[in-house]
Write a structure and sequence with these properties.
The complex is a heterodimer of chains A (235) and B (226).
Chain A: E1 6-15, E2 18-28, E3 33-37, H1 44-51, E4 59-64, E5 67-68, E6 80-83, H2 95-105, H3 111-121, H4 137-149, E7 155-159, H5 167-182, E8 186-190, H6 194-200, E9 203-208, E10 211-217, H7 223-234
Helix pairs in contact in A: 2-3, 3-4
Chain B: H1 2-22, H2 25-41, H3 51-79, H4 83-89, H5 94-124, H6 134-157, H7 163-190, H8 199-224
Helix pairs in contact in B: 1-5, 2-3, 2-5, 3-5, 3-6, 3-7, 5-6, 6-7, 6-8, 7-8
The chains are: A alpha/beta (235), B mainly alpha (226).
């Protein structure tokens, strides 16, 4: 058994002539919370796509518990919970119907109980019978969080999860992420929000033009210096 | 294997629920197919004998073009909001997700055809099942083949800006064997020809269905992972 839960080894991803990721290498242990910062086009979202097996790396390897990603069975994807730019929800189904559908696809037991519990957690229980198309951007994002955590994943991948959230919804999300972190879940979050990312994370990475230009434990990065470090690395 | 078929079932169940709520796919396909059938019925003089040589083609044209419309709408449900990506992230065989969509699309097409065919038979004053119920088998096999290829290409084209044009451009050239064989079979049945003559065309559709099902089953993972 490998010491690292997730290990990236010289991962490169090209889209035609564009190199979205260039020889990215790092490893995370179970229970790590990595916040990835970087300007637009730095390759942050591509990194999450590669990690979640939505797309194959052009070269390099990704290992989970020492096993190469390509060699893992499809069941392994049940360890991931992904929050993306897109809500991953059917507009013409109710909030409850959406979660029930994903619950069945993930092979969950006691789906109704789990659905009610997670809807209460994101404060959407009262709206569970409403069509998703009637939801505001913030409510969609909260339901998207509920969908991604419905199956209690061990690895949570978040791509700009605070986008479109009001203060209250941001507070709910931060609390959920803290709870997941305390429950020893491994979290990788891509964000532009330096304060929130720094506040929640245990490890920090900065990306620029497809490369990891900074990677360290948060304890080695004083809060008052972080913004300066970020600006120096991305400029 | 049970999990595979469960996944297919859940996808179909979800698509049926979506269709019951929105009625977008079947209604749009049905309106278009009826429009084709009715508009083309006016080109024949009453009692014209040459009609029987052409009507099989008109029926397939109605199915294929309305089917293209339905496939686009069906796949839009999956790409709007990124649902397809969510399904591909699920711990299930990705080809089960694909075949779930194939079964849903095939089912919607069969509903459209089941309503269109009686109206077609009334407007053209013919009975395509009069001499052989094999016509039903030809239409079903052709519809399945169309669903398999159509679902694959709608998956590819729906991400493009010109999806309405792109889908028929990709799909129709590959559908030529099915369209050709389907028309030949229907012509034989409509004109009360030698039924054994239709067997070779039926086999062609069957082989087409089996080959594309097997190929897509084998390579679907690679297709969706860019």
């Amino acid at each position: 058994m490998s010491d690292s839960l997730i290990k990236l080894d010289e991962v490169t991803k090209r889209y035609g002539y564009i190199e979205a990721l260039k020889n990215v290498s790092f490893s995370l242990k179970k229970g790590d919370f990595l916040a990835i910062f970087g300007p637009n086009g730095a390759g942050k979202s591509t990194l999450l796509k590669v990690l979640s097996s939505q797309t194959r790396p052009t070269s390099g390897n990704i290992y989970f518990n020492g096993i190469k990603l390509g060699d893992l069975p499809s069941d392994f994807r049940g360890n991931f919970g992904v929050i993306s730019h897109q809500p991953f929800l059917y507009e013409n189904l109710s909030a409850e119907a959406n979660l029930r559908f994903y619950g069945k696809i993930y092979g969950l037991k006691e789906i109704s109980k789990r659905t009610d519990m997670i809807l209460k957690k994101v404060e959407l229980y009262e709206r569970k019978a409403d069509y998703v198309r009637t939801f505001s951007r913030g409510m969609l994002q909260r339901l998207s969080i509920a969908r991604s955590l419905l199956h209690d994943p061990d690895i949570i991948l978040l791509d700009e999860p605070y986008t479109g959230l009001d203060q209250h919804a941001s507070y709910i999300l931060s609390n959920i992420l803290r709870e997941q972190f305390e429950n020893n879940k491994t979290i990788v979050m891509v964000t532009h929000n330096l304060n929130r990312g720094y506040d929640l994370a245990s490890k920090i990475a900065i990306m620029k033009k497809g490369k990891i230009v900074f990677f360290d434990d948060k304890v080695n990065v004083p809060e008052y210096e972080f913004e300066d470090i970020y600006l120096a690395k991305v400029s | 294997m049970k999990k595979y078929f469960s996944t297919v079932y859940y996808i179909v169940e979800k698509d049926l629920l979506l269709e019951v709520k929105s009625k977008e796919v079947v209604v749009s396909m049905l309106l278009f197919s009826l429009l084709v059938v009715i508009v083309f019925s006016f080109i024949f003089e009453p009692g014209a004998e040459y009609k029987n040589d052409l009507v099989g083609g008109i029926l397939w044209m109605a199915f294929i073009f309305s089917g293209v419309l339905g496939l686009n709408k069906s796949m839009l449900n999956e790409t709007t909001g990124g649902n397809l990506n969510a399904l591909l992230l699920a711990p299930v065989d990705r080809s089960a997700v694909f075949f779930g969509k194939v079964v849903s699309n095939c089912f919607f097409l069969v509903i459209m055809e089941a309503i269109t065919i009686p109206i077609f038979m009334v407007f053209y004053n013919i009975n395509i099942f009069g001499h052989s119920v094999l016509a039903a088998l030809v239409i079903f096999l052709g519809t399945y083949g169309f669903s398999v290829l159509g679902t694959l290409f709608s998956l590819i084209s729906v991400k493009t800006k010109t999806r309405e044009v792109m889908l028929p451009l990709l799909l129709l050239p590959l559908m030529i064997p099915i369209i050709l064989a389907g028309i030949q079979c229907l012509n034989i049945y409509i004109k009360n020809g030698d039924i054994t003559e239709s067997y070779k065309w039926l086999k062609l559709i069957g082989v087409f269905d089996v080959i594309f099902t097997a190929v897509i089953f084998a390579i679907f993972d690679y297709i969706v992972e860019e």
